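Mods, move this if it's the wrong board.
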Amino acid sequence: MSHAPGILVVDDQAEDLRALAAMLAPLGREVVAAPSGEEALRRLLDEDFAVVVMDVRTPGLDAFETVELIKRRPRHADIAVLFLTAADGDAEQITRRYESGAVDYVLKPVEADVLRSKVAMLLELQRKSAELRASEGRFRAAFEGAPIGMGLSTVEGEWLEVNAALCELLGRPAATLLRDPPRLEPGELRVARSDGSSAHAIVSVSQALDSQGQPLNYVWQLVDVTEQRRAAAEREARAEAEAVADAMGKLQRVTEPALEHLELRELLEQLVVRIREVFDADLARILLVDYEDESRLTVGAASGFESGGVSRAADVELAGMLERGLGHALELAHRVGHGLDLGARLALGGRPALLGHVHELPDVVERLPLA
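Not the wrong board. Structure tokens:
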């Protein structure tokens, strides 16, 4: 015998019990006999049965009352009851059979094939119902205990259930979410919580189908990525701060206090070399305003112009550009690229970059003889 729930046969006639057991044996389920309704109830206290086959005219406790008592127990609410009766023409009795909780009946004298086919059908229905309940139980446990936010909605958009994780993520109780559900689309969602805080979530959705393959429900899943987004923002800010600190460090290396004691010509020569080294530049040149002709710039110092046929010394038309600061660096880049023989060298890099800085030197520049 299998360990699946068996069949309980209730009849006050011992020979009928033996005959019924023989008819049902080929179904492969354990068949348990009870001579009365009272005995059937006692059996049901300790054992589970898939089907009860019961003679309507069992003496003692009325058969209909027995079934009503069985059905009152939540444990046996779904048990299938098959009545055996000889009162085929009694419409009232037949109606009463179904009202009491029976699902079918068989007329006496019982035909073995008819009885087996009906009991087999009830056993299969019971098996499928048990599997469905188990599946629903597993889904319920997974749904409620999921560490991510989950919600169940109809295809029409009505929300049916939400789990605790979704309530926590969205910052709203279940009753509020079901009454006023969120409008979700697959993708990333920024959530404004009722307490003023915010959260980020990745939204995905899957479709549950019915037995005919038709859309039944939507299962929504929201994964909280708030900490990941916060960590990414912190990494970006840290990288930006490090880049600024690196740039400041390079500038400090160029303008360290040790240069203060040099003569201006030597200072400029040292500066231009350091600028080129620190910023890993191909060319570097310091241009100074010629105070005898303030519309032009002349070369104060240069580095990297010793090879490649690029001219070291040439005047630059100022034309009122540099005195307004770095905002015009692109215009200067254009002029440098086309007016100072730098185009050939800068073009080697494909897309040249220019670093410019405006700084006012001491008055001694006015007395510096410029080449």
